[in-house]
Amino acid sequence: MEINAGVAYLRSLRADGGLDDRPALVAASGDPVARAVMGIGSPLDGDGAGAYVSRRHEQGRRDELISWAVAEPTSGALLAEVILVPARADRSSATASAELRWWTGPGASDPDVPRGALTAVVGFAFAGLELGLLWIRPTAEADALAEAIGFRRGRPTSPSWCDEAGAARALPWCITATGSAAGTGPAPSRRHRA
């Protein structure tokens, strides 16, 4: 699924004759924050970056996540990646939810790039996928951007956000399809139910 986000073009990751995101993935993987979002333990080399692209495509085919390469509109150069990870426990559109993750590479110096990309993905998640709730884990980068794109601190309805005891780990950034925060306030002390 390709999305034109104005300051960025969202497309699938590529490692082919037309576009090669591997060098940008190698550069981005030098950042520990990007590595955490990417789900990798150590920086990538060229082969590892190719395997990363293949893994993202396979995860998309299995409906484990949706990943977009955030690219510069004219050159197609990879600037960032936005990842939407659907919760498995809640599948009806009224309660379906997903976690929104992203990383930015060294070439994404314009703060409007991640903001535009995330805003476009949020719109697609609610209108195209008919999700009811999105959440973002609190991080320094998320705290700086989430509120600006309409998220508020609150509790998600997904058990994937809960610890082994069933209590919400922390208050993430949340937004519902109606644009409101979800269950703002302190985390519940009782077992979380979706």
Keyphrases for this structure?
194 residues; alpha+beta; Aminopeptidase; eight-stranded mixed sheet; 5 helices; 27% helix; 20% strand; globular
Short description:
By secondary structure, the protein is an alpha+beta fold. The protein has one domain (3-176): Gcn5-related N-acetyltransferase (GNAT) (Aminopeptidase, 3-Layer(aba) Sandwich), CATH 3.40.630. 27% of the residues lie in helices and 20% in strands.
Structure, described:
This protein is α+β, with helices and mostly antiparallel strands and 194 residues long. The chain has one domain: Gcn5-related N-acetyltransferase (GNAT) (Aminopeptidase, 3-Layer(aba) Sandwich). The protein is built from 5 helices and 8 strands, in the order ββαααβββαβαββ. An 8-stranded mixed β-sheet has the order 1-2-3-4-5-6-8-7, with helices on both faces. Helix 1 crosses helix 3. The longest helix has 16 residues. The two termini are 29 Å apart. The C terminus is likely disordered.
